[in-house]
Specification:
Elements: E1 3-6, H1 9-19, E2 28-32, H2 39-49, E3 58-61, E4 64-67, E5 71-75, H3 82-87, E6 99-103, E7 117-122, E8 128-131
Parallel strand pairs: 2-6, 2-7, 5-6
Antiparallel strand pairs: 1-8, 3-4, 4-5, 7-8
Helix pairs in contact: 1-2
Bound molecules: adenosine-5'-triphosphate and magnesium ion (MG).
Magnesium ion binds at residues 39-40, 75, 103.
Length: 132
């Protein structure tokens, strides 16, 4: 595990934008950290780094934002059961060959494929430790 120390939202975004170069189609990236840790900021950096500009987001469900069929950004905060997640079709996205970025993956842990990449964010004030 390596650690990057970020001092601002912008630094987290830029780190993620660069980190995106290490991702390939089919990867599932789990973003871990408490509420407000910076998971969405990091996800947006990854999305930008994958060459998605101002492409329109299609929120197929409130739970997943889809970018051109290539990137899927999940927010599973409000998922309360595996049955609900299955009913929403969340597991289907893992079969689509894009990059999946998942916030609050602990709420769908039984549906996650093997070999997920994890990025853990912690800290307070404007400092964040990003473990990857
Ligand atoms: N170094 C930093 N990196 C990222 N965000 C930071 C940093 N310092 C401060 N922030 C602030 O922390 C907040 C992070 O919000 P964000 O929505 O990304 O969190 P989250 O982990 O997605 O929360 P949630 O669990 O509610 O989805 C933003 O308000 C951002 O400005
Ligand atoms: Mg978020």
């Amino acid at each position: 595990m390596a650690v990057f120390l970020s001092h601002s939202e912008e630094e987290t975004f830029r780190w993620a934008k660069d980190f995106a170069a290490t991702l390939k189609a089919g990867d599932v990236v789990l973003l871990e950290g408490e509420m407000g840790a910076g998971k969405t900021v990091l996800a947006k950096g990854l999305i930008a780094g994958m060459g998605i500009g101002d492409e329109v987001t299609s929120p197929t469900y409130a739970y997943v934002n889809e970018y051109g069929g290539r990137v899927f950004h999940f927010d599973c905060y409000r998922v309360t059961s595996e049955a609900q997640a299955l009913g929403l079709g969340l597991s289907d996205y893992f079969e689509r060959g894009g990059v999946c970025i998942v916030e609050w993956s602990e709420n769908i842990k039984d549906l996650l494929p093997g070999g997920c990449k994890r990025i853990k964010i912690s800290g307070n004030g404007s400092e964040r430790e990003i473990e990857f």
